[in-house]
Each structure stands twice: as C-alpha cells, then as structure tokens.
Fold this protein.
Amino acid sequence: MTASTLDAATASMPETSRNVVNMITEILMLRQDREATTTRSRELRDGDWALTECLRELDVNAKRQWVLEMLRWELGPVTPHGVPVPGFADRINLVCDRASPLEDLCMHCTPPRSTGGAGGFTAKPAGGVHIAFKDEAGQGAAVRREWMSIVSAAACDRNCLLFTSNDGGVTLHPNPMSGEVTPEHLSYFYALGRLAAVALYHGETMPLRLTPAFCSRLLGHAMTIDDLRSVDPTLHKNMVEYVREHGVRGLDLAWDDAKDPTGIFYPGERVPLRSDKDDAADKDKDEAVTEADAEAYLRALVARRVIGSVRDQTEAFAAGFGSVVPPPLQARMKAVLRGEDLSVLIAGAPAVCLEDWKRHSAYSEASLAAGFSVACFWAALRDLTERERVMVLQFATGLTSPPAGGFRNLVGYMGDAVPFTLGELPPQRRDEPGALPMAHACFNVLRLPRLKESEYPDGVVGGAKELGRRLRIAIECGTRGFDDF
C-alpha cells in the first residue's frame, strides 16, 4: 500500500475516515524518510488519545487499513517471492505437507535444533511468508491462501476437538477438552495464533471464525457477562437472561459447574466456580446460590465458560499471535479494536454479498463490462448455491470468504490492492465449444469463455445456465493445487 493508493481510496470515505487515513498517509511518508523528526514519528506510531478514539468509532474497513499499515510499519512491506529486497533476505519460505497440515505447521513453528530441519516459521515474517507444497510446482499468494484454508479446515476437524461451536458452526471457541484427544493441543493453538497474525500482515483471511469473546481475550479486554452470548447463546439465554429476569428461585443452583460441558469425558463430575472479582472463591461448591449473590454467580459461571476452562488454549494462541504482533502494537490494537472487529479481520466477511462483489470488480477491457458473457456470469452467480459461490471465490482468488470490509479490500501477490477482475480466455480458447473458465488466483483474475448471444434464444437466462454449468465443472476440479500462470 502506498500513499497514492490511500489518497485514491479516501475519495469516497466520510470525512472522519479520511482524517484517519490521512494520518496513515503521513506515516507512509515518514516510513520513506527514516530520518524524519523522531518526536513526530513516535507520536504517530504510538498514537494519542484523540486518534485512538477516532479509530475506535470507524467501520471495520478503516480499522483493517489501520491494522495492515501498522503491521507493515513494524515488519516491512510484503515482498514478491524470488525478488531480492535489501533487508529482507531472511523472509520465510516454507515447503508444506498437504497431507498433514497441522502437524506440519507445528513442526515449522518448533525452534530449530542444532542439526537443522524444523523451525522455518519461528522468525519474524518480515517480507512475508511464501508457501510451496511438497512435490508441487505452484507458488504465490493463491498457494498461501490455500495453505491457510487447509490448516484451518484441519483445525476444525472434529477428530482433533481443538474447537467447539455452540451456534450451529457459525463461530468457533476453544474446546475445554481439547487436550483429552490431542495431547499436543497447546502447540497447535500457538501455531494457529501465529498463522492468524501472518494472515493479518498479508491482508488476507484465515477461515477460522473465532468467537468475539475469544478475540476480546486476545486483545486483552476484560470479560463481561454478555461475552457468554457469543460463546454459548443458548446457555446465555437459558441462564443469564432467565436469572436476571426471574431470579434463581426453583433452579437449585450451586457454586459449581460441569467439569466437561459435553459430558463425554467426565460425565457427572463437577468443579467449584472461582472468580477473581467476586467472593466466589469463598463459596463451597455445594452451597446454594441465593438472590443476593445471583449476579456474582453469573459472573463466576461466565468466567469459567469463557476464560477459566480454556485458559491454557487462549494463552497459547495469544503467545503465537504475539510472536508476530509486537507488544506496542498489541496495546494499540486493544485500544482500537473490539472482539467482533478482530474476528472479522482474521476470518473475513461472514458471507458473500453479490452486490458488493459486482460493485468492486474490474474488467480487463472496458467493453467487457457491458458484454453478454459478463452479464451471464453475474446472473449465473445469483443462481448458484452459497457453497458454490464460495467455491467460485476460492477458484478465482484462493480465499474462502471475502476480506474484512468486503471485496474492495482484495489484495494481490504482494499484499497491494488488486480487485477481482473479469477477462476473456486467450483468443485460441475463448470460442472453443464447452471451454471452461480459467483463473489466475494470485492476481484475482477470472477469465471467461466467450458466449455468443445469438446462440441463446432466451438471452441472459439461457447463457447464465450454460455458464453456470461450466463454472460448476471448473470449481469442482480447480480449487486446490494452484499453479503459476
């Protein structure tokens, strides 16, 4: 990101957002002149109260720009693979195993022994992280995005029990019992935290949608009782909301909680509730909860479910995150971001919005924007299922969700702004019968076959059906194993 691209981006922003981005632009200018006034540089890096307050009230798109620029300040720009850049000779290049992504990630995060081997992912990722899969030729941004998707999918595997979801799979929270099935679970959480920070640095997404409550802990925010709503909405409704409205009479509550909320590993076992802020530590676990201490009981219960039962997992993830994000920036992020913000920054927008996608798309040639094939493409996307739209997005960009702030924030190979772009197949292929769409995922480009309007009596409707059929074939075969173009 450069000062000129930020200037262009501010044109459509509200005045408040423009003021903040102008501050970021000044930081960019200072970066280019390392001999700038030390006092002013420190003020901009560490920030003042007014700027922090202004940033906190902006939308997630402006916050994303701020986080991205602060990380680039600390770690330097993302550099292209294979291009020597002074000062970034030691950037991270990893060869990863597609068959065992989590184990492989942990191996790379292990400090290297004197004999060498492991530890390629232990250094600061200055200049970026470049990925190649073992025995595969592909490289570039799309390969890195695919790697993050594969690692995230492995982390969500129910056989690992690293995470659990109490809202139908929308968000994930560490599983209190993760160590029962996966003894090395803390190494996994550390590695995943590090990977989440690297995704932020690259301006990309890691499809691991964490609960806002968990992200609040990563930022260092104090717990609130309502944090339980994002971790277990049913328990929040049936316990917190009910007790606050009706009291504890008839509930037979005691100062304890299930050791294992799932009841799988320790059925029937109970543990006492503890809270640092209340007198719960003085309560016997068999003592009944009264109306007078109902609020203290709720705080103690929420503290255990949100923090206490997953404290080790949270600290391991935070340690990995902090190995990339330096403490001064972590403090600034705490002041600016909410848990909801960080969750979206890591995982991206929760759904694919077709209008946003179309609004922030570009075309390799101006004439294509009003062409028949492009009209059929957007109509075909509307007819696809949500899963299929995500697969088209992954086919064309390597991402499984839009970036935080929407499609206007797509980035390319070097982390700079590169919009989703529609083009045509090469001349020798565009008119072939049954020609399939082709993607250049490192550059967010999707090339379409040329459909002739004269061949479709019902116009865009018929063309969309045919292009949708070809898209389905392409995405079923081509969302893994990216290669260079």
User: Anything to note?
Assistant: The mean pLDDT is 82. Residues 460-478 form the longest helix (19 residues).
